[in-house]
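thought: fold this chain, then report.
action: predict
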Amino acid sequence: MPVALPTSLIAKTSEGVARLILNRPEKHNVIDYEMWRGIATAMQAFSADEGVRVVVVSGAGGKAFSAGADISEFERKRQRDTADSYNHATAAAHNALGNCPKPTIAEIGGYCVGGGLGLALACDLRIAADHSRFGIPAARLGLGYDYSSLKVLVGIVGPAAAKDIMFTARRFGAAEAIALGRVNPVVAAGELEPAVAECAR
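observation:
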């Protein structure tokens, strides 16, 4: 793909299927500022590529889709002079995913929490392995949650369930996620990649 991305993101295309991989497995694919910017860049390129018919977003390593935003940058999010640029980058990533004219699929294996869950919610379909864990720990960390992700969350699970998820900051499994409509099929861990590949076809 002819766009510059940080090494923490991998973008590739094969037979009409584009893949965007969060590539920080040693940190459970937490998303930093440069990755948020890179996600928007990659998705804009995929959207414009006539050879791409579907986009799959996944996390490297098999243990996490994404464990959320990079905690080492949380102080940056609290500073007024840098919060705006950080919030703009996250919103741009969500918008680029949500506005993609091609179907988007989140391939969720393992942890999918916080900003990672927001990213998955921006996709059209979410296919999860049965060992996956979900949650939004913003309240426990004393942080706000970006409006674009919150709006999508409420639209998917409804106001009451969204309040429970946000206020309690609890984690829950794939069975509850599918009951809430947050994921589509749930499959065994070993069947995740084949299930996503079949859906992408």
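thought: worth noting. The first strand starts at residue 9 and ends at 14.
final: tokens above.
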